Amino acid sequence: MSELITEIGELMTQDAEHSVLRNAAVVVDQGRIAWIGSSSRPPAADTVTRLDGRAVLPGWVDSHSHLIFAGDRTREFEARMAGESYTAGGIAVTTNATRQIGDSELGRLARARVAEAVSQGTTYLETKTGYGLTVRDEERSASIAHDEVDESTFLGAHLVPDGLDSDEYVDLVCGEMLDAVLPFVRWADVFCERGAFSVDQSRRVLTAARDAGLGLRVHGNQLGHGGGIRLAVELGASSVDHCNYVSAEDLEALSGSWAGRQGTVATVLPACDLSTKAPLAPARRLLDAGVEVAIATNCNPGTSYTSSMAYCVATAVLQMGLSVDEAVRAATRNGALALGREAGLDAVGSIVVGHRADLHALDAPSATHLAYRPGVPLTHGVWRRGVRVV
Ligand code: NIG
């Protein structure tokens, strides 16, 4: 069944030319974009949806989230708002809560979070393990992530569990735990930070994961300056996420990674920065240095309990100095780039003939309204693989 979606006021394609088409129409067929053109000369289709001048952009690609967890950390958030600082230690609170519930309840919670994200225009989602931290709990988290989201990531190296020696835990992560999660994940990640895993430990985890065939991602430079960004570049990671503390050397490494080839995407997490009162990641400086920047929610119960990509995009425009086009690109096409899904048969994050038909119609005439009317629920319609789901 083909569908003509027409009378689009502004179609922000996020294609290579950043094309923005007025009075546009799109045909979706068999889950893919089949045609793009003017609403005055559309081809025939089985069904027709008229959008009365609303804007359409690619569905959000949320390339960093932690949805496999139980419990919440309201008290910790309140303490932070009262002046406490964030430490990675809170991960243990969520890990304890997560270990206590059964597989089906853990799956149900993840499914509800995915549904919440989709209802706000997210059409492609990555999520991580990392609140299990035993072989069994990481394996079931990976299996649930595999079932519930588009891309799943092994983050056994999130925190050293209480009572374990950190090097022995790294041995476990690189050995039995990696073997157990391997059937369920495409990526491995590591929290490379003082208080979590050192650069050497992180390198061991990432090298073992790469040898096992996984793509690499890194949590880097969130809580202070350190070697996370440079390690990510050194190992050819697809993405280094957080990037709150970026030195001149880090910037040079990141921009150098883009010299004539696919480099390491810098994924910024604006909602996390606000919730932890961290310095906002220098997204403008990264872009100006030629680094590809993605925006993601980092939805998790500790540092960023939101599934709203629109909130992150608005923050990037209002507080990080990005244009609307740059912020939307970072939240769509560059999220796909961070996941290696920007081109080819599985391409998402841009509205291009042949790509997956993941569309987000706003109840507004332009994407500018995302920042102009922050906090207003602007999602009018969502199509995933060509099927209208909202
Ligand atoms: O990306 N930084 C590490 N992991 C999460 C936070 C985890 C937590 O505090 O529960 C993050 O912010």
Write up what this structure looks like.
The protein has 390 residues and is of the alpha/beta class. The chain has 2 domains: 2-59 and 350-388, Roll (Urease, subunit C, domain 1), CATH 2.30.40.10; 60-338, Alpha-Beta Barrel (TIM Barrel), CATH 3.20.20.140. Helices cover 35% and strands 24% of the residues. It has 14 helices and 15 strands. It has helices at residues 74-81, 90-99, 103-118, 135-148, 166-181, 199-211, 228-234, 248-257, 270-276, 283-288, 309-319, 324-331, 333-338, 369-372, and strands spanning 2-12, 20-29, 32-38, 47-58, 60-62, 122-128, 151-157, 187-192, 215-220, 239-242, 265-268, 293-295, 359-362, 379-384, 387-388. The strands form 2 sheets. The protein has an 8-stranded parallel sheet with strand order 5-6-7-8-9-10-11-12. A 7-stranded mixed sheet has the order 3-2-1-4-13-14-15, with no helix packed on it. Helix 4 (135-148) links the parallel strand 6 and strand 7. Helix 4 (135-148) crosses helix 5. The longest helix has 16 residues, at 103-118. The protein is globular, with a radius of gyration of 20 Å. The model has no long low-confidence stretch (mean pLDDT 97). N-(iminomethyl)-L-glutamic acid binds next to helix 2.
